[in-house]
């Protein structure tokens, strides 16, 4: 089989090495997965280009945490999945539920072998069935983005029907957060950079869209749209570039799910701004298997379709990373592994 391996933290976008090796065999309570598709996340840019990923990276590990495939072999004692079942895997295989911690921080495509491979051995406890209405390319987009979006929406202040939710931009986490929030009965305000993207966000269910190029102080518009109260939930993906305005947009007692920073910025955060927001600023480290299961359940119940921006072939993995790094995609960038 073939697989793409990380050469180390900060190795560059061309820092993947294609290797050929024997198909592995599953051990006790492990399964062998024939991987059909993978998807990219900003963590890959952080690992390869920026060299600032906060968790351990094992040089030589198989890349990517997102993937979907079919169970083709079972190790001894496996009971959670069956032969032929289509599954995805939680990116933190040992984080089943509860709070995140260092004892649960081993992650696919980082300290552990990931999914950019033709076959992968995974612990059965990490696996989640694929909703029947999704194809393999769509399913591959879920592990990181869906768990992260659900954690950002519901991992702190519980998400309730009628809540106001603010999402930023049109990356994979933001789009899934929009879809999941609407399915839960929330009202969604989205920000974007163009009228074309605004129309696409409305088509996905956004109730209001604010063009941050036309309205640089977009937090004031968010306040206006919420009768001055602010939103209960912010899915914050921009980091220093957007966090100050997210803090101005959140309601008293609200929750800012700080997913990470996808925009380069030297901005510093005013501690007083955090204090006067009277809200919770909460770092979100993707999500547990339980959170992924909850998100996938909503996807299945409401027949949600993840948005795919572009599909690359398995041999085009470096090109996929380079295209994704341009930051222009509306939705997820996917790699088809199986023909």
How is this structure best described in words?
- The structure is a single chain.
- This protein is α/β, with parallel strands linked by helices and 339 residues long.
- The chain folds into 2 domains: 2-144 and 287-336, Medium-chain alcohol dehydrogenases, catalytic domain (Quinone Oxidoreductase, Chain A, domain 1), CATH 3.90.180; 156-283, NAD(P)-binding Rossmann-like Domain (Rossmann fold, 3-Layer(aba) Sandwich).
- It contains 10 helices and 15 strands.
- It has helices at residues 42-50, 136-139, 142-154, 172-183, 195-203, 218-225, 243-249, 271-277, 289-301, 317-325; strands spanning 2-6, 16-20, 30-39, 66-74, 86-89, 119-123, 127-129, 164-168, 187-192, 208-211, 231-236, 250-258, 280-283, 308-313, 332-336.
- Strands 3, 4, 5, 6, 7, 14 and 15 form a 7-stranded mixed beta sheet that branches. Strands 10-9-8-11-12-13 form a 6-stranded parallel beta sheet, sandwiched between helices.
- Helix 10 (317-325) links the parallel strand 14 and strand 15.
- Helix 3 (142-154) crosses helix 4 (172-183) and helix 6 (218-225) packs parallel to helix 7 (243-249).
- It starts with a strand and ends with a strand.
């Amino acid at each position: 089989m073939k697989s793409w391996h990380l050469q180390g933290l900060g190795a560059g976008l061309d820092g993947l090495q294609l290797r050929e090796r024997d198909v592995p065999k599953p051990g006790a309570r492990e399964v062998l997965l024939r991987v059909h598709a993978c998807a990219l996340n900003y963590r890959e840019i952080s690992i390869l280009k920026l060299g600032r990923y906060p968790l351990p990276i094992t040089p030589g590990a198989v890349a990517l945490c997102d993937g979907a495939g079919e169970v083709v072999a079972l190790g001894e004692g496996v009971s959670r999945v069956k032969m032929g079942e289509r599954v995805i895997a939680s990116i933190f295989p040992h984080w089943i539920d509860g709070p995140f911690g260092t004892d649960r921080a081993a992650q696919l495509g980082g300290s552990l072998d990931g999914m950019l491979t033709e076959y992968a051995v995974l612990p059965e406890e990490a696996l989640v069935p694929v909703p029947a209405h999704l194809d393999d390319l769509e399913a591959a987009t879920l592990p990181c983005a869906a768990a992260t979006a659900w954690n950002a929406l519901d991992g702190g202040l519980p998400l309730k029907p009628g809540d106001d939710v603010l999402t930023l931009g049109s990356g994979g986490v933001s789009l899934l957060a929009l879809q999941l929030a609407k399915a839960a009965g929330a009202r969604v305000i989205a920000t974007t950079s163009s009228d074309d993207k605004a129309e696409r966000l409305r088509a996905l269910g956004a109730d209001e869209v604010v063009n941050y190029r036309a309205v640089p102080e977009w937090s004031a518009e968010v306040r206006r749209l919420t009768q001055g109260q602010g939103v209960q939930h912010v899915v914050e993906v921009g980091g220093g570039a957007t966090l100050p305005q997210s803090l101005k947009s959140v309601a008293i007692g609200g929750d800012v799910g700080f997913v990470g920073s996808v925009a380069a910025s030297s901005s510093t955060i005013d501690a007083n701004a955090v204090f006067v927001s009277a809200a919770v600023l909460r770092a979100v480290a993707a999500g547990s298997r339980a959170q992924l299961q909850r998100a996938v359940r909503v996807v299945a119940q409401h027949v949600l379709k993840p948005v795919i921006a572009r599909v690359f072939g398995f041999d085009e993995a470096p090109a996929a990373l380079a295209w994704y790094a341009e930051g222009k995609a509306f939705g997820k960038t996917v790699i088809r592994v199986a023909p």
